Task: inverse folding
């Protein structure tokens, strides 16, 4: 009769939480220690399962630990050897999952560590011992997180940068790059002057300044970049600006804040283009009685007398469909009107803004944000039936009146940016207007005109009449 006990096949589990440089010193020591442990226990080493540079507490997969459990289930491994139990698990729910796994096998699996010796997860005492040590490990993890968060907050409050390299700065010096830093300032000024995110992307791309990724800029990446407090020399932490940083800013803090007000305007999402597909979409109003809708540009086929059919843009009222005007007629007309107004000697008076105090401008931005929030809350209260439709409308109308007044004051304060680079009161203004991007031109029109109304075409008329376009100047 053979009374010799079967050889216990052990899987040595090796894990170290952090080894960014792959020195492997920790797992190599664990290999030696677990081999010695198996010799003491009288086990044979059936394999080493190594999860180097892999934490057991951050929720990420540990492939070799999973492989070890799979081999145990397949009957290839009879025991686990580890340097310490927290190499295997560090939180209570993982211990409980391991106990359920062991119980489901229908056979006992041994477990031992170099510090504790054999751990019996099949006896109440062994389980209690493992639970106590696991509770201590959980507490250590929680305290480490508290210390880490506090250290990160302290670092932020001292203005120490969290980044090493950034567009607009030279290498890891935290000093503005003489080539790209001026482009960043130009980008903010362009945004405040009415340029779209797509326009700014073209500014960067045309200069060959593709950023750290080496990929061309898009409206989305420009939007994210312009929102970064870092550009204004501000230190943020968890999405909150906590103070000034220790590096030199690329733009003034006031410029950055004004840009955020534009980027965070209601209805505008990160990366969303501010320009319409066609130049005057949304700027033209229908002159048909009892309509007043907005005209939108569309491509249409035009038949020319004695010539082939061709595509052209026509602006058509989206409400009544009864008023339309061709782009080739209205766009040059509007360019001429704007250029003529800005070429007059008194055009320089447009730069006289009522608001020059940045503190007052910031107060306007804050008040506008509060009013936008109130509008949102009215919608929520109406949805919960806390307000009647009439009550919601009255409240909305009152708030919108206040918003319109504040936006008018804000627009007046932003005229300097809108007319940046335009030689007001000179003959050269026409060329400057012609070179503006569509978004920038729309911004100029928004400052100069309150409305542009297009009257219906008279019966039997096939010749464009400029009098159909009635503009109202501010």
Result:
């Amino acid at each position: 009769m053979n009374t010799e006990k079967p050889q216990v096949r052990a899987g040595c589990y090796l894990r170290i939480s952090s080894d960014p440089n792959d020195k492997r010193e920790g797992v190599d020591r664990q290999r030696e220690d677990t081999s010695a442990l198996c010799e003491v226990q009288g086990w044979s080493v059936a394999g080493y399962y190594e999860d180097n540079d892999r934490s057991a507490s951050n929720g990420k997969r540990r492939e070799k630990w999973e492989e070890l459990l799979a081999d145990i289930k397949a009957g290839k491994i009879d025991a686990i050897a580890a340097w310490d139990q927290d190499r295997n698990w560090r939180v209570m729910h993982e211990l409980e999952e391991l106990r359920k796994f062991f119980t489901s096998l229908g056979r006992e699996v041994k477990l031992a560590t170099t510090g504790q010796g054999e751990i019996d997860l099949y006896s109440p005492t062994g389980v209690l011992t493992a639970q106590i040590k696991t509770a201590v490990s959980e507490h250590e993890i929680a305290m480490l997180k508290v210390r880490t968060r506090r250290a990160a907050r302290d670092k932020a409050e001292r203005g120490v940068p969290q980044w090493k390299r950034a567009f607009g700065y030279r290498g890891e010096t935290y000093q503005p790059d003489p080539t790209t830093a001026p482009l960043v300032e130009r980008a903010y000024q362009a945004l405040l002057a009415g340029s779209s995110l797509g326009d700014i992307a073209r500014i960067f791309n045309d200069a060959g300044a593709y950023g750290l990724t080496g990929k061309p800029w898009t409206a989305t990446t420009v939007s994210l970049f312009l929102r970064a407090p870092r550009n204004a020399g501000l230190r943020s932490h968890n999405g909150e600006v906590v103070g000034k940083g220790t590096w030199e800013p690329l733009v003034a803090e006031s410029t950055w804040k004004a840009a955020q007000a534009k980027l965070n305007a209601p209805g505008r999402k990160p990366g969303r283009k501010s320009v319409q597909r066609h130049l005057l979409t949304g700027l033209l109003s229908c002159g048909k009685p009892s309509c007043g809708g907005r005209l939108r540009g569309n491509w249409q086929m035009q038949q020319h007398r004695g010539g082939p059919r061709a595509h052209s843009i026509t602006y058509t009222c989206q409400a009544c469909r009864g008023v339309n005007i061709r782009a080739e007629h209205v766009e040059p007309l509007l360019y001429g009107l704007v250029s003529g107004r800005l070429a007059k000697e008194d055009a320089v008076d447009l730069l006289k803004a009522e608001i020059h105090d940045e503190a007052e401008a910031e107060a306007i931005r804050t008040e506008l944000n509060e009013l936008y929030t109130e509008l949102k809350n009215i919608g929520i209260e109406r949805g919960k039936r806390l307000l009647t439709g009439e009550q919601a409308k009255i409240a909305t109308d009152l708030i919108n009146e206040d918003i319109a007044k504040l936006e008018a004051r804000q627009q007046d304060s932003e005229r300097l940016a809108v007319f940046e680079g335009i030689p007001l009161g000179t003959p050269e203004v026409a060329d400057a207007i012609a070179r503006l991007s569509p978004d920038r031109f729309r911004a100029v029109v928004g400052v100069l005109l309150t409305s542009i109304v297009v009257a219906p075409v008279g019966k039997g008329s096939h010749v464009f009449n400029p009098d159909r376009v009635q503009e109202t100047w501010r």
Notes: The longest strand covers residues 44-52. Residues 340-473 form one domain.
